[in-house]
Design brief:
The chain has 444 residues and is α/β, with parallel strands linked by helices. 37% of the residues lie in helices and 24% in strands. It is built from 15 helices and 16 strands. Zinc ion (ZN) binds next to loops.
């Protein structure tokens, strides 16, 4: 016996297919991953590791093992508003329904339980890491800590009274407090900042927020170039496109994540490439709110890092990244009238390595490689809609669903085993979500 194999690993994961998303895009049949202290210690064919001992050995003869999905844009507490207001113009939806509902109903209790509801949905459908942008982010962070998922959590900044920050003059102080509290507190949580948009934050707010982000060395998220209305307003006020305007403020760099990025001209895309801005594409939200279609193919061709997000539950209305992948690929095809646009393999990359790069976590997650943190999901391939199987990427994007996810590992910890969460009490979370919905309906 090889000496190294005497060491008991914490976890041995074994499956029919191991899709690594490593730089060579290796796919192994009958593969094994060995995990110790939350790290992928070794990876390869079963026959190489037959004698490897582990405290826990999970075998999936029909399992496809792959990196956990990375959702680069969401608003976790908004699951409280799932289906509250649909089929409305974005401006009316936001100003007449979402902003008033947030000011009346988002408090520490609803932020916490709404987040847990979202996190439960996410982990059960294969997301192991998400980027959130919202208010009362401290309570979102408490929910994430309880769930065991990995997350980048960005305190929201907006020039209006917001949950937890009734006086907008205090929004940077609140953001600073949140970052100080969570930086280095929980290894799976990175604090960050999220400016709501170019039309809800002044130039001064945007610049001061970015300076604060630079001081702490955290990511800066911004809803950018989402609607034609934003383009018209910024043109009227500043004589520029939203992207050229924020570039002129000096707030764009490789630690900036542009969310939506629908209305971009060629010069805007050159700015993205030059400044190294990362893109979070949220196709279902953009379709539902009729915002437009992000030019993802053009961004990819320019070498700009792109990733996928679900956006919040009020504009999607679910957090299933498999559905998002399917829509992302098909939307580009119909928009460009080109069935070769945005291949399934590119979309799987966007949801794994692309997400990790967007969040600056590519050294740690996004692929199954030795030395990376063990953020892994297992799908059950023994389903009628997944038979027969010719191409793994095609199956993941066009046929698989979040409900095919059987087990989920984050940082080496099994958070979902055979469809059941190990940490979270689903019944309690759904009861709390139902009760919050009942109270909101009663008061509206
Ligand atoms: Zn959003």
């Amino acid at each position: 016996m090889n000496g190294a194999y005497m060491m008991p690993y914490d976890l041995k994961l074994q499956g029919r297919i191991l899709l690594t998303m490593n730089p060579a895009r290796e796919i192994l049949e009958d593969g094994v991953i060995l995990i110790k202290d939350g790290v992928i210690h070794d990876i390869g064919p079963v026959r190489h590791f037959e004698s490897a001992e582990a405290k826990k050995h999970l075998i999936y003869p029909q399992g496809l093992i792959m990196p956990g999905l990375v959702n680069t844009h969401t608003h976790l507490p908004m699951s409280c508003f799932r289906g509250l207001a649909d089929d409305l113009p974005l401006k009316r939806w936001l100003e007449d329904f979402i902003f008033p509902a947030e000011s009346r109903f988002i408090d520490p209790h609803t932020a916490y339980w709404g987040s847990l509801l979202s996190l439960a949905e996410m982990m059960l459908s294969g997301t192991t890491c998400c980027a959130d942008g919202y208010f009362l982010e401290h309570h979102v962070a408490l929910a994430v800590e309880k769930s065991g998922l990995r997350a980048v959590l960005a305190q929201g900044i907006i020039d209006f009274p917001a949950p937890g920050v009734p006086d907008p003059a205090e929004n940077l102080t609140a953001a600073s407090r949140f970052i100080s509290e969570w930086q280095g507190r929980c290894p799976r949580i990175q604090p960050a900042l999220f400016c709501h948009s170019t039309v809800t934050c002044s130039s001064d707010t945007l610049m001061r927020a970015k300076a604060l982000g630079q001081k702490f060395g955290v990511l800066f998220f911004l809803h950018l170039a989402e609607t034609q209305g934003e383009v018209e307003k910024i043109d009227r006020l500043h004589g520029k496109s939203p992207t050229a305007y924020v570039d002129s403020l000096g707030i764009l760099d490789s630690r900036t994540v542009g969310v939506h990025c629908v209305w971009l001209n060629d010069r805007d895309m050159d700015i993205f490439a030059r400044q190294g801005i990362k893109v979070s594409h949220t196709p279902e939200s953009e379709m539902k709110l009729a915002s437009g279609v992000t030019p993802i193919v053009d961004l990819v061709e320019r070498g700009i890092v792109t990733s996928l997000g679900t956006d919040g539950c009020a504009s999607n209305n679910d957090l299933d990244m498999f559905q998002e992948m399917d829509v992302a690929a098909k939307l580009q095809k119909v928009h460009r009238l080109d069935s070769t646009a945005l291949s399934a393999e590119t979309v799987v990359w966007m949801s794994t390595m692309g997400g990790a790069l967007t969040l600056g976590l590519d050294k740690y997650i996004g692929s199954l490689e030795k030395g990376k943190r063990a953020d892994i999901i297992v799908l059950n391939l023994r389903k009628p809609h997944l038979v027969p199987l010719y191409d793994y990427y095609s199956h993941l994007v066009y046929a698989a669903k979040g409900s095919d996810v059987e087990s989920v590992v984050v940082d080496g910890e099994v958070l979902v085993e055979n469809g059941k969460p190990t940490r979270l009490d689903l019944e309690e979370i759904m009861d709390q979500g139902t009760e919050i919905g009942r109270r909101i309906r009663e008061k509206l």
